[in-house]
Amino acid sequence: MRLSDFDFELPPELIAQHPGARRADSRLLRVARDSLVDLLFRDLPTLLVPGDLLVFNDTRVIRARLHGAKDTGGRVEALVERVLDEHEALAQLRASKPPHPGARLQWRTSGATVLAREGGFWRLRFDDDVHACLEREGALPLPPYIGRDPETADEERYQTVYAREPGSVAAPTAGLHFDEATLQQLRERRVHCAFVTLHVGAGTFQPVRVEDLSQHRMHAERFRVPQETARAIGEARARGSRIVAVGTTSLRTLESAVDAQGQVAAGSAETSLFVTPGYRFRVVDALLTNFHLPRSTLLMLASAFAGVERVRAAYAHAIAERYRFFSYGDAMLLDRCDD
């Protein structure tokens, strides 16, 4: 398939600029094999059965956006892509002129030295601990389609309630709909929960620039599958229960960690898995996800999972019914299509 196969017209007013009043009040479109059903997210527990396993991404969004000045006086904006160690990080830099190795960048109360250019990123050495600097001086990196600066409410609402591993520059947005009451209802229905960690990079917002999708290369992202999660997946498979990925990041983690025998292996690695129609899914049976950008790799993944025509119909229905789109928007629950 080609890039243009994943284009659609989205009315700008359907791009959610703020979160809803309450997480679980979001709408939920149930996309089954032969039907589309309009629900609320709080109805999700009724769509699951005892023994089903939900797999969440527990990454936490860091305050990755920094504003400062170069030693030559020009302004610079840094978006930290990945923290490498206590003092070094990879970042995207936006400035009138690109800095040179050895240049100094000054934040409000501390700074960093430019070490080298690495692909589309710059390697920076911070004067103090990177995470401490970001927490003190950084801003939450809201997606580019949210046309406003971060507000106090975003500090809570652009994190999942179960976020615990800092490292992402974007939220795993399918998880934003869960509140403690919904998680408790799942436990009461004996639906199992497990966690993986995938730190979402800034590349998630980079557009696909080639019409031939076979020429596109995904950015690499770090992930970790705990031993208890690998074990929970094996047990769910043994009892014939469904594996439900909460978000595309959870799905890509699981599909990247499966071995030749079809078993999900515990451990840490990087993934640049690009899922397009024709991909054979080996782990995940159902996918909970938000509505994604036109021509995006996330839309391609959803189409590969549930079927291109089924997803096109779901998006057309969502636009007609005025669903909210993208990070702060509504959600849909997709069954895997093995046609």
User: How many E-type strands?
Assistant: 17
Task: Supply Rg.
Answer: 20 Å
CATH H-level homologous superfamily name of the largest domain: QueA-like
Number of helices: 7
Tell me about the largest β-sheet: 9 strands, mixed
Low-pLDDT windows of residues: none
Class from secondary-structure proportions:
alpha/beta
* CATH secondary-structure class of the largest domain: Alpha Beta
Strand composition percent: 25-35%
Identify the CATH architecture of the largest domain: 3-Layer(aba) Sandwich
What keywords describe this structure?
17 strands, 7 helices, nine-stranded mixed β-sheet, Thrombin, subunit H, QueA-like, alpha/beta
Plain-language structure description:
The chain has helices at residues 130-137, 154-157, 180-188, 227-238, 248-257, 297-306, 308-320, and strands at residues 27-31, 36-40, 53-57, 59-61, 65-70, 75-83, 88-95, 104-106, 111-118, 121-126, 165-168, 192-198, 221-225, 243-246, 267-271, 286-290, 331-335. With 339 residues, the protein is of the alpha/beta class. The protein folds into two domains: 3-61 and 153-335, QueA-like; 65-137, QueA-like (Thrombin, subunit H, Beta Barrel). A hairpin with a 2-residue loop joins strand 9 and strand 10 (121-126). The longest helix has 13 residues, at 308-320. It is globular, with a radius of gyration of 20 Å. The mean pLDDT is 95.
